[in-house]
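User: Hi! I'm a student and our assignment asks us to look at how structure tokens line up with a sequence. Could you show me two examples?

Assistant: Happy to help. In each example below, the sequence comes first and the structure tokens follow. Example one:
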Amino acid sequence: MTRLKAGFIALLLGGAIGCAVSEPGGVSGSAGTGSPGSAGTTGQAGTSGNAGTTGQAGSAATAGTTGQAGTMGQAGTTGQAGTTGAAGTAGAAGTTGTAGRGGSGGSGGSTAGRGGSGGATAGTTGSGGSGGTGSTTVPSPSAGCGKSGRPSGGKVEVSGQSLHYFPTNYDGTKPFPLLIALHACGNPNTEFVSLTTGNGLDTTYVRTFPNTPDSGQCWSSYTGDVARILQQYDDIMANYCIDKNRIFATAHSSGAQMLVNILAHKTDAQHLNLKGVAPVAADPYNVAVPMPVMYIDGKMDNQRSADSAKNTVARFRTANMCADTSKPFTAVPMCNSTDGSRPAVDAGCIIYDNCTVPTIWCSHNDPSYSGTQHGVPCFAMKAMSDFFAGL
């Protein structure tokens, strides 16, 4: 009996010990790997790990924790469009960066799946549009806009004082740019009438040709001459339709000296609000305001001192904060002189580097003006027209 009880107890203890040993839990889930993704979509979350299977009579395996979601790929930034110059091509937009794909879920186990890797880098910025030619200045109508139509014959003249010409399509409502042209010593104020005809200036600009009553028709009295020029300018603005943002000036010899002298007087220069100038054969004055310039002079001009052109250009370079360096300005083509046997003329133009405004010097070899190289060369008026149109 005693043996029977001892055997029964042993049997019960063996069963209890066997039931206390649990089966192994589920294996750890492997980490989810994130691959760089294509389009900037949100990474897919890792799937939950499978729970470990329960051993016989064992305690339940701990369930695998949820895999962390892949981080959202950063979208590529859109490239900035190129600014459009007139006739310029727009810059291509930047490509969009690709986003990271979410990590795959861990299989069962206690270790969580690893999140997907981050998205690809942002898209590259689009390149800018190439610059076009032509002005983008917004017109500023003068007080005279809408007062009257085109004057009879397209011409208004006060003998010995002023002369204005109007394009055939001028109607008094659309503002036109204004071109002021100052004649050379000993020349009437009609000198530039023919020079500005047939090259686009006559069809694009209202043209005004002031006159000086000074001895020999030379601009020799600054105070009186500038007062007349400013008064005529004010009269045009008050009575005709002019774009106040597009006032230009050219001049020759004594007239060119007068024009550069006006630029040396800041108040007078600001009154005219010039957008650009193209003096021919002037002399140096201390230019008081930054001014886009195409300066033209003969390389061997015998009516000016040897350093006149160089020193005049130096004053413009100072006002326009140019570097000492320059490069050829090839936009001005060669031409044939109107003088003598009509030799080929090299415009000899350069443009200075790093200026705040365009600064061009054309040192030519046109023998015009009776072989003096002091005249208005064959390329000048077309070059001026193109230069003004580009400002």
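Example two works the same way, sequence first and then tokens:
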Amino acid sequence: MREVDKSNLFVYGTLKKGGRLHGVLGDSSEFLGVFKTVEDKFDMHDYGCPIMVPLMEDNGFKIKGELYKVTSECMARVTAVECGAGYVPFIVEVNEENYPEGEPSKAIAFIHPTPYTTTDVSDRVEEKDGVKEWNDG
């Protein structure tokens, strides 16, 4: 398995292409493709924005998002925005959606340490075959 590359950023919500915060990535990011978490140890909730939450057991979901190669300046901007909203950096292993048998990459994702409360079903969080994805468009 590869070491974590501090310039790999996995985004799954408002930082994705078309998301309202995508501009935070600026011109100093390179889109690497659509990826999913390797482990199914997460859940996603809709609090007006997506909240990715780690679970202790293996009966959660994989999360689908986008992987970017970013500069240290871009990562600093993203960190300021995400940490200011209560998210924390977390290392995740991801595989390309169309090449799941490939060697996983490690990336930084910003997750919420714990959900405030469970939420009702949201039409912005789609679940299919054990994978959750944020769609706000």
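Here is something you could point out in your write-up. Strands lie at 8-11, 29-37, 42-46, 50-54, 62-70, 88-96, 105-111, 125-128, 131-134.
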